[in-house]
Amino acid sequence: MTVAGMDGFRSKLALFFSHFMATRMASPTGGSWSEPEPEEKKTPPPPPARYLPSPPRFPPARPRTFALPAWAKTPMGPLADEFAIHASSGDGNCFFESLRQILASARVQRTIAELRQLVAKPILDTDNVIVNRTIQNWWELYRDGKKERNAQIMEEYKQMGVLPDDVTLPLGDRERWRLFQAMLTPLYWGEQHACRIIEEQTQMRFLLFSGDTQRPALTWYHSTAFKPTHYCFLFNAQQHYMAVSFRGRYIFKWDEVPVEVQTFFSQAYVQVNPRAEANNANTNNANNAAQEPDPTPP
After folding, report:
1. Global confidence as pTM
2. Which of 19, 43, 103, 216 has the smallest CB count inside 10 Å?
């Protein structure tokens, strides 16, 4: 083939090749060919619905309420039906939870931790005669319950379990601090000491329906500075406290309490936890000067 023929063949081949590439590499939509875009990273699909927490089907249940038992209804007559016992949790905070509910009705917002701090703080006062006597009562009851293997007594005063068996009274600073820390936890569930401290701090007296004795009860042995101005109701049974409302209210002045209710509590002026308070009958005169039974009900 001549040189001229070779050049013609090459030009035809180049023309064919360029036409071929233009046809093959054109985009399906008629546009020119371009580099493909990189694929986005795919996220893994969510797990099947059966592994996901399902939303609540119903709104949270409102706190349950109960009527007063028959032993409290009979003396007060129809008025008893206007009381409502409000359920509280059984996690060792029932007293403080009930108290928080009562105070909240007066727009006083306090946490359980704050109320526990208020009740436990006097334990650190080495010069407080009432507190020292209270600690002695707790320790004697707990020690005797432990010797007798009385599970109920040990449960009631389990905050004393943080102290060594050979502890001496009155407690030193280190032991008081350990007891103080225990009272900030559900190891201490609240009893006469807690009632007395809160009453004196708020000048509000607790009127208790005691399910264990089936009688109304009041707290004794206040300081002489206690002059209650308001009253509220609590229900207590088997170491469990619940707030009690009357006609939808929690806190009252004495003259706002119906006469039938006043009579019910005034005629049954009894101690809370008589077993724990039995030792207070032997309190010496110095103790009585700072700690005296309330002379007149309520």
Report:
1. 0.71
2. 43
